[in-house]
Design brief:
The chain starts with a helix and ends in an 8-residue tail after the last helix. The protein has 304 residues and is mainly alpha-helical. The chain is flat.
């Protein structure tokens, strides 16, 4: 296997590993397994191999996978800085390592000291950024990445600003979704698309949190719809910006329906599966929006 294939293999391994960390983190929260190892870290209840309980296995597996993926990412970082000439790849892997370490530190702090729901939600947000960076790194070794320095479309300042605003707004909606999860507020709105059978429910407590999250998701759909039709009218169908916009629209629609699936599956056996699917889709959507942000920085010369 030549050097480029090694770089591609480890980059994709890092990306899939980070996605697995996100999914397992959501599983820890949904099953309330965060205290499965007590307040010990990195050991679990004072042991390297913990006693068998569902909560301890889920929590310790999450830690174990995070450690393995961290080592894979470290190898990827060393290989890229040693053998790659692409500046963008070095930025992506370097920042991914930084945010991976940061989320691990926050995870350890959450175990050893009680944290507010707002802080715990931030832990997911940082993990999401780390995943997005590994996704960008993996895309470097695909058609989409190889064309980063060959962007043919001249994006207007308005479109560039729109991309960044939509991405930051998406992060806010994701954070609010994580806040819903960590405050156990999902039951605040029963039914879908109405909330507790009302267009505008009683705005208090868990109902208020979930309702704001739903409104945020609808506005995000409208923003991405506007962006998609805007770039469709000005760019070719093979343009990277158009393709990314198309996939962003697909994922935001799927994300909304997966949110409905989560709501309607509460109390059923497939509730956890629905929650994991919800996590995967929002991760993909945010990653695509981050890719669009990178395209706004390229110009015609790129950042090789």
């Amino acid at each position: 296997m030549n050097t480029q294939k090694w770089l591609k293999w480890f980059s994709f391994a890092s990306m899939y590993g980070m996605l697995l960390i996100l999914i397992m983190g959501a599983l820890v929260t949904k099953t309330e397994s965060g205290r499965g190892c007590g307040d010990d870290w990195p050991l679990c209840n004072g042991k390297f191999v913990p006693a068998y309980t569902i909560e301890s296995i889920i929590e310790y597996s999450h830690r174990f996978v995070t450690g393995i993926v961290g080592m894979i990412l470290l190898v990827t970082l060393i290989l890229i800085f040693r053998y790659s000439r692409r500046k963008d790849a070095k930025w992506f892997v370097g920042l991914a390592m930084f945010f991976t370490i940061l989320q691990a530190i926050l995870g350890a702090m959450a175990v050893m000291w009680p944290q507010s729901s707002a802080t715990l939600a931030l832990h997911f947000g940082i993990s999401l950024v780390a995943f997005a960076l590994t996704l960008l790194l993996a895309l470097v070794y695909t058609r989409f990445g190889s064309m980063l320095s060959e962007t043919k479309s001249s994006l207007s300042p308005g479109i560039k600003w729109a991309i960044w605003i939509i991405t930051i707004y998406c992060y806010g909606v994701v954070y609010l979704g994580a806040f819903v999860r960590h405050t156990n507020s999902a039951g605040g709105c029963v039914g879908w698309p109405l909330c507790n059978g009302q267009v505008i429910p009683e705005l208090s407590g868990a109902t208020l949190i979930v309702f704001i999250h739903r409104l945020g998701a609808v506005l995000m759909l409208l923003l991405i719809l506007w962006f998609y039709f805007n770039v469709k009218s000005k760019m070719g169908t093979r343009d990277n910006v158009y393709q990314a916009g198309k996939w962003a629209l697909i994922f935001v629609v799927l994300q909304i329906f997966s949110g409905a699936y989560v709501t309607l599956s509460m109390g059923y056996d497939w509730y956890l599966l629905a929650s994991m699917l919800h996590t995967i889709l929002i991760s993909c959507l945010f990653g695509i929006l981050c890719y669009l942000c990178v395209l706004t920085l390229q110009g015609r010369k790129g950042i090789r």
